[in-house]
Amino acid sequence: MYEPIRGGTRGGQAEFKWTDVSADKDRENYLGHSINAPTGRWQKNKDVHWYNRDLKDSEFERLEEIRKIKEAEADALAVALGFTPEPKQIKSELSGEASEDKTEDPKLVIEKEERRRRKEAKRAKKEAKRERKEVKRE
């Protein structure tokens, strides 16, 4: 009446490996096989997860990009309807007065400052090396 449970393993989540799928003859039957178990020459030295690796963009940058796109769409709609688009009033980093074509992103300002600091350090290091050479010549 009752049959005993079959012994051994029948597979499952603990036994599953994508490397086994890439070697399987029926690999096309697995959902996600082309991304998680890529085979062939086309995938060699390719980043198949490129769409998921955009870690540099923060939430602020994403929202800023969406805001810029919405502004551009609103300007395009205004031009299409025959109106003049609203001028953008954003402070220029050099003059401190309002500018219509420059956008001010805090992250970009920090990056520019960091590049300027590194450049200045490199210049100072080069100058010190030049002075040591002068002392050595004398």
From TrEMBL:
Domain Multiple myeloma tumor-associated protein 2-like N-terminal residue range list: 8-82
Biased composition (Basic residues): 115-127
Chain spans, region Disordered: 84-138
Alphabetical list of InterPro entries matching this protein: MMTA2_N (IPR019315), MMTAG2-like (IPR039207)
Keywords: Kinase, Transferase
Biased amino acid composition, Basic and acidic residues: 99-114, 128-138
GO molecular function: kinase activity
Keyword Kinase: yes
Pfam family, one: MMtag
Protein name: Kinase phosphorylation protein-domain-containing protein
Organism (species): Rhodocollybia butyracea
